[in-house]
Design brief:
It is built from nine helices and nine strands. By secondary structure, the protein is of the alpha/beta class.
Length: 262
């Protein structure tokens, strides 16, 4: 087995963490969990599985994912979310890499995204390549609070995929428990000084639907593709509606906690 440190960021993931860690152990000889002060048994279960657990209040997407790098003893890191799994095929492919002598700084993997037990490819959900295996001395996640990625000009795409249990059902596509993506997006836009007008919510929402349904393959995905396109459009509409509300309603702005990412 190669010397790779697996890093997982968590928040109330007691239902996922054990299986996630066990899948990472197929390719990693060290597992680090950065837990965002979970109220359940996430960190206790992680420790029982042999992971090193570090508690850190949530700082935002890329910032939080980079917290574990300081604790990793290996140069190579694999980043995995708690609702993701290393497939046996991907594990076999990674274990066959001579990681110490590879000329690459990073490897990108596909994701198979699921709603319930349904593998959904619409709206560019597949192959959905992402850099997850990388040298920590060469690159890391972008230090942003939303939509972080690992940049690399010297990467290779692998053939096999991560399994991502993204949503348990269609209802979660529209409102995943304990997540409020539109509010987070609106806060980030406001902090950056972005402005919205009365047309912004409808414009961005409409463009998001048209882009995902017609140009990103939602129309080929049946009811799941349509639902995804509507949900993405709804999120975009709400993000700009909330940004506009911050601009025009001092009371709403005063009551909003901009220190809390969610």
């Amino acid at each position: 087995m190669n010397h790779i440190t697996g890093i997982i960021t968590t928040l109330n993931e007691e239902h996922n963490i054990e299986v996630c860690i066990k899948s990472l152990q197929l390719i990693c000889d060290e597992i680090i969990v950065v837990d965002s002060l979970s109220a359940d048994k996430t960190h206790e279960l992680a420790k029982a599985c042999g992971a090193k657990v570090y508690l850190q209040s949530y700082l935002g997407d890329g910032i939080q994912k980079n917290v574990g790098l300081a604790h990793a003893t290996n140069t190579w890191v694999f980043s995995l979310d708690a609702d993701e799994r290393i497939s046996p095929e991907l594990a076999k492919e990674i274990n066959a890499i001579d990681i110490e002598n590879t000329p690459y700084d990073a490897f990108a993997v596909k994701r198979k995204n699921f709603i319930g037990s349904r593998w959904v490819k619409a709206c560019h959900w597949y192959p959905d390549y992402l850099v997850r295996l990388y040298r920590k001395d060469k690159t890391r996640f972008t230090e942003v609070k939303q939509h972080a990625h690992v940049p690399s000009n010297n990467k290779k795409k692998l053939s096999n995929a991560i399994i991502h249990y993204r949503y348990n059902n269609i209802g979660e596509v529209f409102a995943k428990p304990e997540r409020n993506y539109s509010s987070r997006g609106a806060k980030i836009l406001y902090i950056k000084g972005k402005k919205a007008n009365a047309f912004s919510p409808v414009l961005h929402g409409s463009l998001a639907f048209l882009s995902n349904y017609f140009f990103r393959g939602g129309i080929l995905g049946g009811i799941d593709g349509l639902s995804l396109s509507i949900a993405i459009a709804q999120n975009s509409y709400l993000k700009y509606a909330k940004l506009l509300e911050f601009q025009r309603d001092p009371k709403v702005l005063e009551n909003e906690n901009f220190d809390a990412v969610w």
